[in-house]
Hints:
Elements: H1 2-12, E1 18-21, H2 27-33, H3 36-43, E2 48-51
Parallel strand pairs: 1-2
Helix pairs in contact: 1-3
Amino acid sequence: MVYKVITDTAKEYQSDIIVMGSLGRTGIKRLLTGGTAERVLGHAFFPVLIVKP
């Protein structure tokens, strides 16, 4: 799981924040591809900043 790698790596490096981009998919595309940014946001133990690229 990608979100697990991101959160584990941030924890390993003792990061203060995770900054990541989000493509902003909605509807069917979001259901089919998942939402990595959303999962990171839900599983991180520190602040997450999500920006549109």
